Structure formats: structure tokens, C-alpha cells
Amino acid sequence: MMNSILLAKVLFGINVSEPFDYLVSDEIKLDVGSYVLAPLGNRLALGVVWEVCELDAIPKGRKLKTIASVLPASPMTSAQRKFVEFVSKYTCAALGSVLRMCLADVSAMSTPVAQRIVQTGILPDRITDARQKVLDIVGDIYWRTSELAAAAGVSVGVVSGLIKIGALQQISQQIDDGFAVPDPDKQSLELTSSQQQAAGTLVTIAKQNCFSTTLLDGITGSGKTEVYFEAVAEALRQNPDNQVLILLPEIALTQDILNRFAGRFGAMPAEWHSDVTTKNRQRVWRQVANGQAKIVVGARSALFLPFSKLSLIVVDEEHDSSFKQEEGVLYHARDMAVVRAKTANCPIILASATPSLESLHNVQAGRYGHLALESRPGSARLPDIFAIDLKQHPPVSGRWISEPLRDAMQRTLGRKEQVLLYLNRRGYAPLTICRSCGERMKSPDSDSYLVEHRFSGRLVCHLTGYSMIKPTNCPYCNAEDSLHPVGPGVERLAEEVASLFPDAHCEVFSSDTARNPKQIRELIAKMQVGEIDILIGTQMAAKGHNFPNLTLVGVVDADMGLGGADLRAGERTYQTLTQVAGRAGRAKLSGRALLQTHQPEHEAIDALLAHDRQRYVEAELGLREQMGFPPFGRLAAVVISAQTGQLAEQAARDFASMAPAIVGDIEIWGPTEPVFAVVRNRWRWRLLVRSGRKVDLSAYMLDWRNRYVAKGGVRIKLDIDPYSFL
After folding, report:
1. Rounded distance, CA 459 to CA 131, Å?
2. Contact 109, 287 (CB under 8 A)
3. Among the four 131, 196, 339, 417, which has the fewest Cβ within 10 Å?
């Protein structure tokens, strides 16, 4: 009787839509989900076994290669494979491109090996002082020969001699520093009655150990973190193998959460974001896969880690637009986290002081549970919020701080309290113009203006990262010293503050001044202990931080972001202003927030002043429903780019002409040029597609893209649920 032939379908982390077929030799043992090395072209590539089947014979005409080896990492779970398939289908991204986000380097999949020098019990015939020093400190540490010699203060020859005579022996051992095991029963902070009630509900949900989505909706400073900690604790109590994922939108929030986790659970969780070193990322990936990392705190990409037993997901600041991935595979981490929880059959908690309209609509529709925290603990209360109408109180020419805000800052500083000025513009000035010829300085590889950064003396494109030293002469008319900054950035605001309050200690909090977690920690610590009087910050300072002595928040330009074609402009403005105002008065001292605006009557600002979120939500949802926009409809964007404007326009029109027949509630708008027509030396055109909720928009867009064959360097990018309209 002939033996059957084992065939494995292997998916690689490359831009492919389906796995490749490979033979499995009798010597290799693998499972569906196994990580393998297999020949791909002229190299061995890392892949995942997506399917295994048996054949009676190899089909005629097919020459199949054989899998080279199976890696020792635990196989990818079926839940994660289903998640990869869903993300691929929903975002119209190639299956292999989604898998790439799940893979680590091959070296991460094997436990590292280190040399350890141990005593054998054989004593040398002659004990010298140098030899005795070595024997005294060997202990059970992992030493290299040179390191042991240096630690003992002797030559390498002394250690080598002890090895040669058998007094010491070199052995290889696998090492992998594990993460400390969190203690769910460690004493927690005393919760208020409303916090206890919300925590009790979340604990019950964690005990049920099945999929559900709950919106934890609490005003700024209401203690949402302490509340969802209790759900984390319960998830860990349920099973020692359980794992928890906490997603955060920005690195700036990570350190505070890590410290609070350590305080609550007696152990630091695993950390995952772009600033983690390669070595530590490999360690985290490996220990998540083998179940040793119990709690992971990370950015959106942590969603693709290989959890062995995921039991709870928390998305903190769920409304934040930073959860939208804008490069590579375009996905929204909040929405995909809900899918990840469903595939793992575990609960998910979405936490925010300013929930997204999508989440609030899902609550209204009964798809999400809802827990509200409507007060701050203790004597702390929400800050009073006032508008400063810039039509009535304009700053003096060349200044940006109005008289009412300046007076409030003076009184606050006089009480030895702290001030936060919020302006979401990095650098010194958003525009540099030649006063001689009127030319506006633009990036040579895009359509965006160059932002002056006076601290570094450079002009920078925030869209592409291009930068240049600020020239002394205009590059267009050669006029000397004619380049003039227009408008304020945080650096220019700091200059104005220094002239108004020369005795105050002022610092800028932006991604230019706090570039990594260490610098962020240092600046936050200085603010918390009172070493900073006035903090001038971008959105990095607007959320998640707790400064006990901060009592005044001044928003320099509350209108920023209200204009343009972005359907979420009003929602984002309301959320951002609520978050930044919520930094004030979070302890015993009462707080105030002053919003400088030309539009105090705008519905978002008016609702904020009245502390009436529901009024704004109802008005905005009503408008969205009339337009058929999310959450009542769906959107997809198409960006067509090419090396010339003419080629991009023609490709966009050709692509538009190939749209599948419209069946049901679908509208196509465009093609047209976007706000930034040129990005990284490529010309762009775009279309926007709107559909009803019942339309499979992803399938429609994929069918459309497959009809068009891109030529001449034309690229087509599909963005399901777009957040950027530039």
C-alpha cells in the first residue's frame, strides 16, 4: 500500500494573497500554525503553515520544494490565523502583508543560549591569589571568560588555566529572563462607590470568559484605569495561563500606565512599541508566544503579537485617531481589537473620557455594554471652562496670548500653581514666507509648507520628514534676510511666554523636545514635582497625564481643526479640547480652562462650555445619519499616485471608469486632487466611496481594484474607513 504524501500550504510575510505548496519530509513533524523555514526563490524564508493535507500523488507537471525546518516557537493559534484572514479581507490587504505584522525575526523564535562557567569541585594543586579571586566570584552567573577575568581583576589566562585543569567548566544553557508574575490580589487603591460598581460589573464580565464589548465612559480624572485594573486582576485570577493586552495610542502614555500597573500588581508588564529595542522586542514576542508574558502594554501593533491564551483586551483612549494605521496595511486598531477579542472569545473594554461617535452609536444600538463614571474621586471636580472671544479680545500684533489669558496666567503663577498652554503645532511657525517676492517655502518632494524649527535652525516638512537648514537668502529671489515666519508654533509661543513671564520656568512638550520614553518620563516628572511653572504642549500633553498642581489650561487656538473636509473635524475638536481641559484641577485644587476662539458659537465649543456632551453627540449623529456617513454608513478612499501629475490624473480617470456596477446604496465621488497633490515626489488623485452599512464595501473595493492593471509606476492604495482626507 502506497504511503500518502503530506503537503503543507505555507504563507509568507510578503505581498502575496495565498500560501504556497510544499512537501513535508518524513523526518519533519509540524502542525497547522507551525513556524517554518522553506525555500523561496534562492533563499530560505520564514513562513507559517496555513493548512496541511494528504495527497495520493504529486499532480503531474508540478515540482514541489520541501520544507527545510520547523522552528521551536509554539504554533500560531487558530484564533490568530482567523484574525489575520479577517484583517486581510476587511482592509483589502494581501494576506501575506497582514501576516508580516505578526512575525518576528527568526532569532526570536529560539530561546537564546549563553555560556556559563561553573566550578567542578576539582581544586587546583596550587591556589594563587588570582585563582582564588576567580573561584570566589564565579557563583551562578552567566559569564564569558573575558567578563569573568575582568570582574575578578585578573588576566584571561588565569580563567583559561582553571578551565584547562578542570577546576572550572564551560557549559551552554538556554536563558530567557522572564517577566515577573503579576499578583492580582495585591492591595489596590480604595475605590469610590461609583468606581466599585463599575469595577464589579467588569469583574463579572471577566469571570464569564466570553466575547463581549463594554464601553467604560468616564469623565477626565474619574479613575477609569483603576476600574479596569480590577477586570485585569480577575482575568488573571481565572487561569494562571491567561494573558491581557492593553492598547494605548501613544508612547507618551506608556510609562505612567507601566508604573501604575507595577503599583497595582507588583510587577512591570511587557512593553511593546516602536522605541523598544530589537532585543527586547524579540524577548517580548517569544514570551507572549509561550505564555510567560501575562500583561502586555503597547501601541496598536501589539494587537498582532502571538498570544497563547488571550483573555482580556483593553483599548485605552479608544477615541484617539492615533489608533489608525496610515502606512502599509491600513487598519484601525480599536475596530480590529474588537475582532481580535471575538476570535479569541474574550471580553474587550473600550475606555475613554470622550468616546468616539462609533462607540456611542454601538451602545445605543445595544451592541456594546456601557459603564459611566460621572465624577472625580474625593474633592476633585471638573474644571470650569470659559471661552475667550478673540473678536473681542484680540492679542496685540505679533502676539498670540490674549489679555484675559495672560491675566489668568499671572494670577495662577502668583498662587504658585502651574499652567498648561495647549497649541497643537510643532516648531516655531507653520509657514515661512519671503517678504520680498511673496514665495512660500515648500518641501521639494511634496505640496506641504515647511515648518520653521528655531531650536534646530531648520525648515521641516511634517508630512514627509524632509528638512533643510533655514537659508539666509530667499532661494527664489535671493533677497537677504527676507524669510519671515507666519503664525505660531509651540516654540514661538515659548518665546512669547518667556518675555511675558521672565521669572517663570517654561518648557515645551512636543515630539521635538521629548523624542523618546526616557525624555518623556523626565519632563513629566519635572512637571509633577513642580519644577515647571508653564508647560507648553502639543497633543502629547493633552491626555492621560496627572499633574496635581496644574490648575489653569489655556488653549491658544481652539478653532484649529474645525475647518476642512474632514467629517470628524468637529468630533476631534470636541474630544481634544475636553481632554486638554481635563488636565486641570485633578487633585485638591480647583481648575479652570480658557479657550481662545473666533467661533465660541460653534456647536462643539458651545457644548464643551456647557458641559453638555449629549447635546453635541445627538446633533453630530443626526447630521451623520442624514449624510449616510459613519457610523450610519461606510467610507472607502482610493489614492492613485504616479510620477507625473498627468499620469496620475489619467490613471485616476481610468480607474474610476472601471468601477463595478452599483448595486444597492453606493456613491462614488471624484476623482479629484487632494489637499496635498504631491507627496514624496509622487502626484496624487483620490476618490471617496460611500455605502450603506449592509453593503460589503470591502468586497466591492477589492473587485474594483482587481479590474485595474496598474502600469507605468502607478500605485493604487485602498483605505477602508479612512481617517485622513489630505
Report:
1. 61
2. no
3. 196
Report the percentage of the chain scoring pLDDT > 70: 97
DSSP H helical ranges for 365-511: 403-414, 490-500
Distances in Å between the Cα of 715 and the Cα atoms of 642, 645, 709 are 7, 13, 10
Look at residue 246 and tell me whether its pLDDT is greater than 60.
yes
- Fold exhibited by the domain 193-373: Rossmann fold (3.40.50)
- Domain topology for 384-425+488-622: Rossmann fold (3.40.50)
Q: Which residue has the cell 479652570?
A: 592
The string of DSSP letters for 207-243 reads HH-S-EEEEEEE-TTS-HHHHHHHHHHHHHHH-TT-E
List the grid coordinates of 559: 478653532
Distance set, CA 362 to CA 355, 368, 572 (Å): 11, 6, 18
Does pLDDT of 2 surpass 60? no
The span from the CA of 566 to the CA of 599, in Å, is 18
| 43 burial via Cβ count (<10 Å: 0-12, 13-18, 19+) | exposed
Q: What is the per-residue pLDDT for 578?
A: 87
Please give the Cα distance from 705 to 394 (Å, whole number). Answer: 51
Write the class of the CATH domain 5-77: alpha beta
DSSP string, 21-90: EEE--TT----TT-EEEEEETTEEEEEEEEEEEEESSPPTT----B--EE-SSPPPPHHHHHHHHHHHHH
**Which of 201, 159, 167, 525 is CA-nearest to residue 369?**
201
Query: Distance (Å, rounded) from C-alpha 615 to C-alpha 606?
Result: 10
Is 133 a residue whose pLDDT tops 70? yes
Say how far apart CA 603 and CA 610 lie, in whole Å.
10
**Phi/psi-derived region of residue 681, left when phi > 0, alpha when psi is between -120 and 50, beta in every other case:** left
**CB of 695 closer than 8 Å to CB of 634:** yes
pLDDT at 1: 39
Tell whether domain 633-720 is in CATH 3.30.70.600. yes
